[in-house]
Each structure stands twice: as C-alpha cells, then as structure tokens.
Amino acid sequence: MDLTYYLQTLDHFFIYLVTSMVLFLIGTYIFKWITPYSERALIKAGNIAVSLKLLGKMAGLVVVLQSAIRSSINLIDLVLWALIAIIVQIVLHLVIEYVFTRNTNLAKEVENGNTAVGLFLGGVSVLVGLIVAATISY
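Predicted structure:
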C-alpha cells in the first residue's frame, strides 16, 4: 500500500466532497423553494408525510450526485453534470407531482399529513434519481 499516493490525492477528495455538498445544498434549497409550504415548520410540528417526501427528494439528489461524481473527468465536468441532473430531477418531480395527478392536490395532501402520499412522492423522487443517475455516463 502506497500511503504517499493517498496523501497526494487527499486534496482532490476534499475538493470533490465540498463541491458535492454545496451542490446537494443547492438542489435541496431549490426543492424547498418550489414547495408551497414550509417543510421545516411542518417537520418540526411532527408531520411525517413532509419528512418522508423531503427525505426522498434529498436521497434522489444524492443518487444523482454520486453518479455525477463517478462519471466526471474533472471538477467542472462534475459541476456541469450535477447541475444538469439536478434540473432534470426537479423538472421530472414537478411533472409527476402536478401533471400526472391533476385531480389530486398532492402537495396539500402531504401538508395535511397524508403519510401514504408523502412516502409515495419521496419514493418517486428516489426512483427518478436512479433513472437520471443511470443516464450520466460516457
């Protein structure tokens, strides 16, 4: 085991880690920004449905980011693929939540504490993240 090699690449690890965390926070912030209610307040009040939905969104973002990290050839490549994937993830989430379920206000259901809807939407976010992540390749 060549310890020198690992010490020489440690800076790359930290740069990618910090960049990925910033991208994760940006994606999470955008999801929170487009949500019509305060997720923080509802989670603090014990709304499990909101918590499940937000956790699913965050997990979907992580899946997309890990794929961008694995497929990137440099830091700029990582940022570009991650931003594209985050945008696609958000657009697909909006399409699924608002277009395919026009007759039901899913956001209102989650806000009212419908755990089944929160879990469904969180799960959909993870599944969409897996699909988007699989498309990031060379």
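Summary: The CA atoms of residues 27 and 86 lie 6 Å apart.
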